[in-house]
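Supplementary notes for students who missed Thursday's class. We covered one full example, reproduced here. Read the sequence, then the structure, then the short commentary at the end.
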Amino acid sequence: MSLIQWTISFETSLKPRTAALACTLAAAMITGLIDGAIARSAQVPTTQEQITLSFAPLVREAAPAVVNITASRRVRTPAVPSLFDDPFFRRFFGESLPLAPGRQRPQSSLGSGVIVSDDGMVVTNHHVIDGATEIRIALADRREFDAELLLSDERTDLAFLQLQDVEGLRLPTLPLGESDDLEVGDLVLAIGNPFGVGQTVTSGIVSAEARTGLGISDFSFFIQTDAAINPGNSGGALVAMDGTLVGINTAIFSRDGGSLGIGFAVPSTMVRALLDSIDRGQPLARPWLGAGGQPVTADLADALGLGRPAGVMVNSVEPGSPAGRAGLRVGDVVIAVGDTPVDDPDSLRFRIATSRIGRDTTLTVHRDEREVVLALPVELPPEIPPRDETWLEGRHPFAGALVANLSPALREAVGHTGPDRDGVIVLDVAGGSPADRINVRPMDVVLGVNGQPIGSVDQLERLMNRATAPWRLQIRRGDRVLDTTLRG
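Structure (token representation):
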């Protein structure tokens, strides 16, 4: 008979007052037994290892590879009014006097980076070095080097630099880890140079995985951590407990510019994908899927027989694309790429973008209330038709627009996710041009002119130079089609 059973039995055989006293004594006995068990399991530390818990050994290995980056650029200040700008003087000297031009002044920004190879390749954020005319890197041991930009990708907010004049020097490096192996609750360190005060280390945990929809970059897929990340930490290292680089610190959620315990890092999986592009010696290009999709809502999940609202419901498949050749169909729900589940279109885009080119992967899809596994070839998008980038000239509404033929490669390069698979896309617009005045914007797709569908840059150029006002223009902008008539 257990102690509790004995107590209950003993209590029921006694008078009420005696029973109450017995209950108190029994509770004291139980408390004593529990306290004794806790005392036996919680012991006083007896060794130095048990007394000292420190990240110091890990920091000694990782911190030397984290560098400080100074990016210098020249910016034009607003024009400062001069004496001759005064209307009183212009009344006498005429309107031909020049206005005082704006001046260029140097501007520098601080950030962090990580050395990832013995020859001095450094990874950082695109926004740290964007527009820089000179990049200077300082190591933790105070050695300084000039750096050359190898690759900068705004869509992932990553950039790669090469230290200059480092032949024969031994440089500290930080090996790339597997960000996909991280779990919520894992300890991590954030190393960087916040506020320009010098190298600083903060610790925390992975507070969330696969954060999407943040609007920080096109491939919005981040590790979230509560390790303090502050201005200047951008481009610094997020380090796992095995001493590997699992993320590049990129952004914070903040109301006043300081850390509020919510920071975001680009996963090392994306860093490795861009490194592969550099190793191939080719311009940056990512694998393409050739299919479009939408999030699975709770209503869709119920209708399709899914256990929960997750995955991507396919709403278009391009003929001849990897998705088409793999057998993906409209109405399928993609629930995993390889062994990794996908919850929304952002995570699907990330998994395809980080797949190794030349190696097949698999798509797990929900189809007809069962799971089907498809073999997906991982390959680069074709440049068909050639881009034929052209600045349009002449006396017509599109003059001053840079246009190109829309191909799978161009769609991937500029992040075009619209329904159009061919046609002509606007890449840039010259300020003050006719195209600018009618509000033509980059990423607009020209669908038609005067009722005639537009299929190529050459066709658009010939038609605009031959036609006269009025012009009826059809342009797709995002998910809208703009139909307008210009009378000259």
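Commentary. The first helix runs from residue 3 to 12. The two ends are 101 Å apart (CA to CA). If anything here is unclear, bring it to office hours.
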